[in-house]
Write a structure and sequence with these properties.
Strand content: 15-25%
Number of helices: 8
Radius of gyration: 17 Å
Strand order of the largest sheet: 3-2-1-4-5-6-7-8-9
Distance between the termini: 30 Å
Number of strands: 9
Order of helices and strands: EHEEHEHEHEHHEEEHH
């Protein structure tokens, strides 16, 4: 049976990040993708120029329409934009226990635009973190959620992962792409264990939407029945391939997208 994965996130009309990237990544990882929009953005590979927030009541209507008719095997939550949006999502998912939830705390776009209003950080932390099977922050996002400086070492990453686990998620995948070095280290932290995932760093500017892509691939792999560690390995391998082949695309003049279907396209 092909699993169904629901992404709750914002739109990126350039197709590299947001709900568009989620649909591609979920599909490429063997699941059927569904989408609930929380915000519309005007953006391209050079940055975000405008944001239109979807009313929280309509976000909730979209989610409830899905659950009224369709089996959902995993959920990915991306851009929530506002505190009211976080509350609407939390209320809609309150009765859906047992479904894996991957929470990507989208706060700042690749080009630097703020995608999460200041008062929404507390709502994200208080309302959505406890629902998460896996939380997937990068180093600045992890630090922002904890109110501390961004990690600069692997020991710091583990300590912040443990601190974030104490806020409710079953597991925290801290992404170390902001560290320097030849490899890109991520660590999966649970109450019982720490597992490291390293991959060679690809020198490229085409990394737009990597966080969206990783979290969506992870949700698809959880929906297929893998545990958090195996799902993370599969998702990270997928993203590494997508980034390595990003140069095959010709999209924009800024931070280009990854190649979500690199293994499918003819060489």
């Amino acid at each position: 049976m092909i699993p169904n994965v629901l992404s709750i996130a914002g739109s990126d009309p350039s197709g590299g990040a947001g709900i568009q990237a989620d649909i591609k990544a979920i599909s490429a990882n063997g699941a059927y993708a569904m989408a609930v929009l929380t915000a519309l953005t005007a953006q391209n590979t050079q940055g975000v120029s405008d944001i239109h927030i979807v009313p929280p009541a309509f976000v909730r209507s979209q989610i409830e329409a899905i659950f009224a008719d369709i089996r959902v095997d995993a959920i990915k939550i991306g851009m929530i934009a506002t505190a009211e949006g976080a509350a609407a999502i939390a209320q809609s998912l309150a009765g859906q226990a047992g479904i894996p939830v991957v929470l990507d705390p989208v706060m700042i776009a690749k080009g630097g635009a703020t995608l999460l209003q200041p008062d929404a950080v507390a709502a994200l932390r208080d309302r959505l973190l406890p629902l998460a099977t896996v939380l997937t922050p990068n180093l600045p996002e992890a630090a922002h959620l904890l109110g501390v400086e961004a990690a600069t070492t692997r020991d710091d990453m583990v300590k912040q992962g443990v601190a974030l686990c104490a806020l409710g998620p079953q597991a925290v995948l801290i992404k170390g792409g902001h560290l320097s070095g030849a490899s890109s280290p991520d660590c999966l932290v649970t109450a019982q264990d720490v597992v490291w995932f390293d991959a060679p760093r690809t020198r490229t500017a085409n990394t737009h939407g990597t966080g969206c892509t990783l979290s969506s691939a992870l949700a698809a792999q959880l929906a297929r029945g893998l545990g958090p560690a195996d799902a993370t390995l599969a998702a990270k391998t997928y993203v590494s391939t997508a980034v390595a082949h990003a140069g095959d695309l010709s999209v924009g003049t800024g931070h280009g997208p990854t190649h979500h279907f690199a293994t499918l396209y003819a060489k």
